[in-house]
Amino acid sequence: MSDTTELEAAAFRRLLQHLNVERSDVQNIDLMILAGFCRNCLSDWYREAAEAAGQPMSKDEARERVYGMPFAEWKAKFQQDATPEQLAAFAQAQRRHG
């Protein structure tokens, strides 16, 4: 493994720590509005990378790796219903980025 790969892996682990421990209050919809990706996107990218490396992985397995726990558990602990304002902002962001 190259130094670059190790550094990238460390940065990814830090991103997950930040999103799931330090900022579990930040909702996925807010990430989507502001950045165009969320924790679910990260888990999809993780699964795609695993499969490209010949390591099949289910959606649930990838989400557990990204969320640090089963998705249903994370959702029950931290996910809130989207507000009408968030839904409107999400729709507007989709039009800008679409």
TrEMBL record:
Domain SMc04008-like residue range list: 26-91
InterPro entries xref list: SMc04008-like_domain, SMc04008-like_sf
Stated name of the protein: SMc04008-like domain-containing protein
Taxonomic placement: Bacteria, Pseudomonadati, Pseudomonadota, Gammaproteobacteria, Lysobacterales
